[in-house]
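Write out the 3D structure for:
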Amino acid sequence: MSSRKFSLLFCSSLLLCFLSVDSSSLHCPADICQCYENHLEETVWNCTRLTSASQLWNGGHLPLHGDLQKSELVQHLLIADSKIDFPDDLTPHFPNLKTLELSNNLIICSKHLIWLLKLNDKLQDPENVQCTSPQTFNGTQILKALQLIHDVDARCPERCVCELAHVHKDDQYVTVRVSCNNLGLTEIPKTLPENVTIHMDLSNNRIEDVSELTKNPSYSRVTVLYLANNRIQSISSLEDSDWIKQFSLLSLQGNLLKEIPTDALNNVFHHQDINGVRMLLSNNPWKCDCITITQFQSFIAKHKQLVKDVSNVTCGPAEGESAGKKVIAVELTSVCSTVGNNAINLMDVLNVILALLTLATIGKLLYDYYAYRKTGQLPWIASKLP
């Protein structure tokens, strides 16, 4: 055999050997993964220290022979010692995936990872795969956390921002912050996340009507509500409502309120621990006439620990001499004195008139009696009687 033919035969054999190398490793991102076939001849990628999901399929890991070694053929993916917060959805890149293992990772549970819910039946040992951050979800099982995030996001009011603020370890007490401030809203949103306690911020909008709080069952779960800097003129629709009986904080600062249903609020606070309830009422044009301020001052005095900004609750600009004064500092005698003095003066006049009429009547009777005894003549009115 000529040396040339021998060389060609050797090169051909070498190429065949090279092409017969385990196909699972040919497309393997070797800098972060170990790729092999298990005893069932299924492709396994065991990857560590990922910082981005795209490391698993980017252009730096091209197959050496055909398309047989692409990530589409991977059936078992193990990721460890990585920070998992990437928004990249793995499912299109690993369509034949049978198992996914995520042990020993830093897992940041957020909206970025919601795609993992599509792999819930493939996730290995899910009860022991837990979120490590944010603090809200630290120690929470990953699929439960992501399902909560998904459900809250799906029911979040349009244009608002919803985030989980507190998740109890047994998932029984979940608190969601719903922020809808400064959106130009003219009415209270009708849709809210379900089965959670809600702290809601509707400040800096153009809301006038609060009746949605009583009509919409979803608001029975809103315990903290900021309605500061809106255009609310009345909260009378909240009287005797279920909502007003269960809130823990209500901010009505910077609205157009002149009075509030103090009797209804007194009844509510009488039956609950008011140390856990707060109201904010400053920067409203409060009415300070005699009747209104008497009731309002009594309410504030009775629940001083409830109205947290009581020192900034002032009479409105249309309240005459009381305008701008702190409601708690207004002297009732100064507000009620004019009405009282007028009433007293009127009574004095009436009393004097009645006294004079009485004296005149008595005088006339005495005169008629004297005239009758002297002349026998009856009084003129008596002579006209039949």
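The CA atoms of residues 121 and 165 lie 28 Å apart.
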